[in-house]
Design goal:
Elements (H helix, E strand, L loop, with lengths): L2 E10 L13 H9 L2 E6 L17 E6 L5 H9 L4 E8 L1 E3 L19 H5 L2 H5 L10 E6 L39 E2 L14 H15 L16 E6 L10 E2 L2 H10 L4 E4 L1 E2 L5 H12 L3 E5 L25 E4 L11
Parallel strand pairs: 6-8, 6-10, 7-8, 10-12, 12-13
Antiparallel strand pairs: 1-3, 1-4, 2-3, 5-9, 5-11
C-alpha cells in the first residue's frame, strides 16, 4: 500500500491548542524534533463549525518531517509517546475503474447503451421518485470532476452561503469561494481534475455522470439520480506519478459531510486499515450522510482488487454501504 512521503497522521489524546511545530508536551515535542518534524497542522480544521460531532477529528494532525525515514517508521515511533492516541502513515488509495453501457426511456442520446440502469430497474424507480423532486446532494469524492461539462453543469451543487469569486469565506466553513465544492489536490475552489493527473480527472467525471448527469435533456448520458445535485470534491494526488490515485480522500469525505451532502460516493480503495478513516466515516454518519464505496472491480483476491478473502478499505469500515460490480448482461459477479 503506497503512502505519502514526509508526513504522518497523529491523533493526540487532547487538542494541542495553537499551531506551529510544538504541542507543549515535552516528551512528544522532543521526539518530534529528533524525527525532523518541522510543522504540525490540523487535518480537519473546518469541522469545528459542526460542534460536538467534530470534536474527535479536531485532535488529528499532520506531522510534516524532513529526512529519508519511511512514514511507517516515523509513525511507529510517535505512537509510543504517552500523549499520542495513535499515529499512522497517510495512505494513498487507488481509483476503481468504471464501466457504463446500454438502453431505456429518457431521451438522453446514450441511454440505449447504459445497461446498468436496466439491471437496477432505474426506469421503474423513476416512475416513483426522481432526484429533481427533492434536495438530495450527492458528493463525488474522486479524482476531480469536469463539472462545467454540458451534461453535468446544470446539476452541480451551489453552496447557498458562499458568494462566487469574492475572495472571502462567506459562510465561515473554512473554505474561500467554495461555491461548487473544493479541490484538495490544488487547495482551490475549482474541483476540476488536474492536467497532470488526467486519468484521475476522467474517472471523477465519469462517476459524476453515472450518479448525476442531467437526465432527459436529449444529450449524452442519463444520471442515476435523474437531476439530483452533485457536490464535486477533488481528492486526487497532485503528482503526475500518482495519476489514478487518491491522497485526500478522508479530508474530502469530512468536507462533504460537514457541508450537507446526503450521499457521499467514494469509488476507490486499498488494503490498508486506517483509524483516521474510521473516525471520519463515523463523523459523516453522525452528520446523517450515507457513504457509498466500491468493493473493488476484481473477481478474486488474485488480482489484488477485491474483497473475497482479504478486506479492502474504505468498503469494509463500519457505517459504509459497499457496492460490488456485476456483469453487463446479468446480475452475476463481474
Amino acid at each position: 500500500m503506497a503512502v505519502m512521503p514526509g508526513v504522518v497522521v497523529v491523533k493526540l489524546k487532547a487538542p494541542m491548542g495553537e499551531g506551529g511545530s510544538k504541542t507543549g508536551r515535552m516528551s512528544l515535542d522532543g521526539l518530534a524534533a529528533k524525527l525532523g518534524v518541522f510543522a504540525i497542522e490540523p487535518v480537519f480544521p473546518f469541522v469545528q463549525r459542526v460542534g460536538k460531532r467534530g470534536e474527535a477529528l479536531q485532535q488529528i494532525y499532520n506531522y510534516h518531517y524532513r529526512g529519508p525515514a519511511p512514514p511507517q517508521q516515523v509513525a511507529a515511533q510517535l505512537a509510543r509517546d504517552p500523549h499520542v492516541e495513535y499515529a499512522e502513515p497517510r495512505f494513498v488509495y487507488r481509483l476503481h475503474g468504471v464501466a457504463v453501457r446500454r438502453r431505456g426511456s429518457p431521451n438522453d442520446a446514450l441511454f440505449g447503451e447504459m445497461q446498468h440502469l436496466l439491471q437496477v430497474r432505474a426506469p421503474e424507480a423513476w416512475d416513483v421518485v426522481r432526484g429533481d423532486q427533492g434536495t438530495t446532494v450527492i458528493a463525488i469524492v474522486d479524482g476531480g470532476t469536469d463539472w462545467r461539462h454540458e451534461d453535468l453543469r446544470a446539476n452541480v451543487w451551489i453552496n447557498p452561503g458562499e458568494v462566487d469569486d469574492n475572495g472571502l469565506d462567506d459562510d465561515g466553513n473554512g473554505f474561500i469561494d467554495d461555491v461548487h465544492g473544493w479541490n484538495f489536490a490544488s487547495n482551490s475552489a475549482d474541483p476540476t481534475g488536474l492536467a497532470e493527473t488526467p486519468s484521475s480527472a476522467g474517472h471523477g467525471t465519469i462517476v459524476a455522470g453515472v450518479a448525476a448527469a442531467v437526465t432527459d435533456n436529449n444529450l449524452g448520458v442519463a444520471g442515476m439520480g435523474w437531476n439530483a445535485r452533485f457536490m464535486p470534491v477533488n481528492a486526487a494526488c497532485p503528482l503526475a506519478g500518482l495519476d489514478g490515485s487518491i491522497c485526500f480522500g478522508f479530508e474530502a469525505i469530512a468536507y462533504a459531510a460537514a457541508n450537507g451532502a446526503a450521499v457521499i460516493n467514494a469509488s476507490w480503495g486499498g488494503r490498508a486499515r486506517s483509524r483516521v478513516a474510521q473516525e471520519v466515516i463515523d463523523f459523516a454518519y453522525a452528520q446523517g450522510a450515507l457513504l457509498v464505496t466500491s468493493a473493488g472491480n476484481g473477481g478474486s483476491d488474485l488480482n489484488g482488487d477485491s474483497n473475497d478473502l482479504v478486506p479492502q478499505f474504505p468498503s469494509n469500515y463500519n457505517h459504509v454501504l459497499a457496492v460490488g460490480a456485476t456483469g453487463k448482461a446479468d446480475d452475476g459477479k463481474a
